[in-house]
Design brief:
This protein has about 250 residues and is an alpha/beta fold. Helices cover about 30% and strands about 20% of the residues. The chain is built from 9 helices and 13 strands. The termini are far apart.
């Protein structure tokens, strides 16, 4: 069973997993019953999380809502360390993530719009480097694991900055290679296999490095570093299966 689950989450594209998530969860959940780990997004407990990723990393994917470490980190920030669900806000969610979609839509305080380049479930469709929306329109923009795919990430950041209202906030997480001091990108690398070898995924065009906050600042943002280790014990970090290295960068338009 372990080998079957690993094969499924490694080889079946995440959009298909999401489409059949309820059936997948129903079939797989009995094998993961327990209370050793907990997903703060959906509230369910398990003996461990599912493996996930190109290398089938262990203990990563929630069997119910399909949240990953980055989703659980952001959820903790939004629910416990911000007023996201307590104040009336206009929110734009680019490349909306399955664990959040229904929860954000159901929140009565949020004027919530989704966007994507091609996804049929999104409300709006556009290129993030040329957002067809007015200046100073949104209180929040959420855009996770998108900037590693676009031709010019700083141009995209500047567009997000432009459409935010003064005081507005953006969460734009990206995969970060912690061994790189500076972001690594080479536009001459176009072969998908070569990109996967160098950037970790066939459709990535860069590895962001430790300079990622500087890139956000170059686009005009003030940046808050939210390090979950400063707010939760090591035991709780492990229970929620968070990435101990990941920092949530909350960007603000002053």
């Amino acid at each position: 069973m372990r080998k079957l689950i690993r094969f499924i989450v490694r080889n079946i594209p995440r959009p298909i997993l999401i489409r059949f998530s309820k059936l997948f969860s129903f079939l797989i959940r009995p094998f993961y019953m327990g209370n050793k780990v907990e997903c703060p997004v959906c509230g369910h407990k398990f003996r461990k999380m599912l493996p996930y990723g190109n290398k089938a990393g262990e203990n990563r994917l929630c069997p119910v809502c399909l949240s990953l470490e980055r989703h659980r980190l952001m959820w903790i920030y939004l629910t416990q360390h911000s007023d996201f669900f307590n104040t009336r806000y206009k929110v734009l969610h680019i490349a909306p993530e399955q664990p959040f979609l229904k929860k954000f839509k159901a929140a009565e305080n949020l004027d919530y719009t989704t966007a994507d380049m091609v996804s049929p479930i999104a409300d709006l469709h556009f290129d993030i480097m040329q957002i067809p929306l007015p200046d100073n329109s949104y209180d929040w923009v959420i855009c996770n694991h998108v900037l590693e795919h676009v031709e010019n990430d700083i141009d995209a950041m500047k567009e997000v900055f432009r459409i935010l209202k003064p005081g507005g906030r953006a969460i734009m997480q990206v995969p970060i290679n912690y061994s790189y001091t500076e972001t690594h990108e080479d536009k001459s690398i176009t072969d998908p296999k070569e990109r996967e070898k160098i950037y970790g995924q066939y459709d990535h065009v860069r590895w962001h490095g430790l300079d990622y906050p500087k890139r956000l600042k170059a686009a005009g943002f003030s940046v808050e570093n939210f390090d979950i280790k400063a707010h939760l014990s090591a035991e709780v970090v492990e229970k929620y299966r968070l990435d101990k290295q990941e920092i949530l960068y909350v960007s603000r338009k002053l």
